[in-house]
């Protein structure tokens, strides 16, 4: 007599949390100021302002922008601030840094807005594999958000998870 196969994972109270679900949709663009510098290293204020004034900023409509300089030039803070004033009417978000920094900032904002009250005293598994760029810092920020609320935290897949945290019994 064959026994019925029971899917214990499907019947468990385990909640899978996928950071990919919070991925802010939109194109990411790295804006490198190196080409606006004399020989790629010297920022001349007048020329820099002229480039900024004549640039077509509308091409960044609805995009996430990471302002950077790929050369070893020292860029004063006001230069990135000036570019941000031009980008502000068009871009969804402007940061100084690389794409990973941009993703971290976007995920920080998304995690800060999360309401996790429905996860109170529940076992949660944070899904590990992703098809979208989820920065490592996003996982740490998520732990910070979830740990005070949940019963337990695991990482990976339900069939092969790594335990991270279990709420102490009082």
TrEMBL record:
InterPro entries in the cross-refs: DUF2480 (IPR018914)
Superkingdom of source: Bacteria
Protein name as it appears in the record: DUF2480 family protein
Annotated organism of origin: Salegentibacter salinarum
A Pfam family it matches: DUF2480
